[in-house]
């Protein structure tokens, strides 16, 4: 009897231990690298790796993760692999190897392989596809309005989103309900094991910071180095998505206010200077009443304006030309009709189909994945009729971006239920301090989110970039901390700040 009880106790302990370890901790076969076949990745190495479709069924069906590698230039002194995710969700990551030289120093590239991967269901990783052709997707996207104002626009947008989601349900298959960031983090753990690294080195941008935070709390003991740049608020994004959407709209408003303030401060160096705030609001409020037909430019809509300025705020280098374009459009609508004006900038670019901007073989894979990930990760109200009321409240607080943000994920209202998601805890102490980096005027991932990310993680340090754009850029100071941290684990002191080396509106050359 004592022997039987002892055996039973051992068996129970084994079961408990197995349940305590995430499924991705199972053994991972090694990777096989070969020259990439795509022209865009010529000169790099590629690999495909099978991971469980459902990590709770590790011996069941699989899905493929596609990767690209830039090998370390000093192989004799190689430290390991840096995995990079560019964000999205819906963004393919293999091309991160091409951008590595612009984000990582030569010293880092000498000592590390850089691996970009397309997360499950995205890019070359068994991409999900809600429709058979681009034309089918575009028919629905064309019925959506990014900033719906009229009753007709709102009704058409709600109906088209419903039909879009129904198309995903019909056509995607089993992967549709296994797209959560929880699964991506478990995939990443298998990839770490497959490249042979004892611990993970990871750089995640934008949405990629949620993947990083999720991984850090699933596998805190295997974090060698992790940079999270352009941060989400993990607790709010996964636990209170509607409030998170409201806060995100506020982040765009803060960045817009900074753009307009810097424009006036720059004077003649900014073509839109001279009470830029009032001029922008006048332009926005006019387009809210309906489109404007401008000679030589064409029809300009509220969608065009909001989409254009939102995209501009992602890159401080785009500010001067955007100011010229805004002034041109403002002059055409409100200027003296007897004054001869010569266009000094390109007309306002037309807004792309709603969320259909990511290039894939089927153009809207990224769009489909945007829904699949966000709808899996975060609870949103499942009554479409509520969203016009949300939009009105959002717009009252955030007049330029609130309405668009409220409607941007209304497709989740009838998304199939997903049980695989991670919503915390976020405070497990990692083996290495995580480096959190964020610009103060980041539109999509506002600075407050980075503060909260730092506070929520169990072991993190915030590096502030005083500047503009989505994720850190144009800063030798930030680049230096990247290098020191990735090579040596050195973190900046508490309260450290970096300057942006590119001003928003450089003075005109003499």
Shape by Cα distribution: globular
How much helix, percentage-wise, in residues?
40-55%
Distance between the termini: 94 Å
Named at the architecture level, the CATH assignment of the largest domain is 3-Layer(aba) Sandwich
Would you give the CATH topology of the largest domain?
Rossmann fold
Mean pLDDT: 91
Query: What top-tier CATH class of the largest domain fits best?
Result: Alpha Beta
The side-by-side strand order for the widest beta sheet comes to 1-2-3-5-4-6-7-10-11-12
Instruction: Please summarize the sheet with the most strands.
Output: 10 strands, mixed
- Count of runs of 4 or more consecutive helical residues: 17
Low-confidence stretches: 1-26
In CATH, what is the homologous superfamily of the largest domain? Answer: Alpha/Beta hydrolase fold, catalytic domain
Structural class: alpha/beta
C-alpha-based Rg, rounded: 24 Å
The total number of structural domains is 2
**How many strand segments?**
12
Describe this structure in words.
The chain has 17 helices and twelve strands. The protein is of the alpha/beta class and 510 residues long. It has two domains: 35-243 and 365-510, Rossmann fold; 244-334, no CATH class. It has a ten-stranded mixed beta sheet with strand order 1-2-3-5-4-6-7-10-11-12, with helices on both faces. The chain has a two-stranded antiparallel ribbon with strand order 8-9. Strand 11, helix 17 and strand 12 (497-499) form a beta-alpha-beta unit. Helix 6 (181-195) packs across helix 7 (208-218). The longest helix is centred in the middle third of the chain and has 26 residues, at 241-266.
